[in-house]
TrEMBL record:
Record bears the keyword Glycosyltransferase: yes
Keyword Transferase belongs to the record: yes
Listed GO MF terms: glycosyltransferase activity
InterPro entries: PRTase-like, PRTase_2, PRTase_dom, TRSP_dom, UCP020967
Species classification: Bacteria, Bacillati, Bacillota, Bacilli, Bacillales
Name used for this protein in its record: Phosphoribosyltransferase family protein
Amino acid sequence: MKSTITSIYSQKKKTLPILKDMNVELQVNENPFDLSLDQLFTMAARVNKKRAFLFVSELLGKHIPVKPFVPLVTSGLLALLYAERNNKADIETKAILSDFLSDDDERLGQAFSKLKDQLAHFQEDVLVIGFAETATALGHGVSDMLRGSAYLHTTREDLPHSPLVTFEEEHSHAVDQLCYAKPEWLQSDKPVILVDDEITTGKTAINIINEMHSKFPRDEYTVLSILDWRSTDDRRRFSDIEKDLGITIRSYSLLTGEMNFRGKSLSKASYSYGPRMEDPPKLDFQFIDVSNFFRSSDWLKSVEGNQSIEKDYIHETGRFGLTADDHDSVTAACKAAGEYLRSVRSTSGKILCLGAGELMYLPMRMAAFMGKEIYFHSTTRSPIHPVDKEGYAIRNGFTFPNPENFEIQHFLYNIPKSTYEELFFFTEKPVSKASIQPIASLCEECGIAKLYVVSLAKGSDDHR
């Protein structure tokens, strides 16, 4: 087969400044789509003693606002790498990449459609697992592109049921990763594809492979990521596990290289906003219930007979597993809900669609059907140091309690003042008016004229 993906081994070395006396030295080894570094990421400082820096993705829709099709096409490129490297796809990428790198809504949509159409004949009976919280949408998008694949994402939500798999993301601000699904989801011997936005040491992938293999052994694992910075020693650890467990682990990324950090970690960050609960916002905000477009999850029905818990979660997220047959219905639900929200928006100006934490893929897909001038990203649990200077990834930062759980602090970055006219804030569970006050105040602070709070699940009677 003639490969249409060129493996570009550049051996380019570059030093990227982060803050004063803080930088990373990079060596790029493989760049299959010949994407430039600034098309892939910019740098920021983390408030985390375990890892002092962050590659902030320009493609993911997490910390930086993007057109909704940008992360969806990014997932498609990872799916394409998997298909091509397994000798099961032969796709001309030049036109796709040209559309992908444009900022035009229609061309971005065309890149997504071309990838989906050309991968439609690639059938693969695999289980795709996306890592919370950053890669829940990235993994879901990969699974949607790989026809025949099932999908499950890990979570940091502590549910009233024992998880099938528990492992640690050691460098993260919130280290615990949990997999909730029915046992039959992991009892098969089908290959597993693990999807993360970035691999630095590979320890998170090693942790889940060790945990899964001790309970649900299989022969083959693949790790897909946008960036892969593993050192020679890190790669050797993957080889050692392959030998120890008698398995095969493959790794494919949009950019592969090595990096070295120089500097000291930060102990605290400054944020330009904190909730002003003593000063209630005057902003007009509206609740929108789109639960009729989605299915309540039945996974928790057996948990102490608690039907109210069941109503608070929907099937389409992938937290409890999606079969290959579910992908078309997820797309249909997002299309119907997105077109409804398009009829609700009251401006043709810039609109921000904002997911809450792990809830990324469904709002992203809905946003893609909401018309032009739509941008998407999401809140996060990760504290990052904001600095308002050109070239730094996190220009401003805001913090507030998660409206779905006030015990968990969320952070939001890169909301320029007087940029967006309206904000659609998506939650899985219905939330109270009181819980939205900090976000309404944030909108006032940033010059956003109207806030819509969109809930996807049917709530129990005590909501709102």
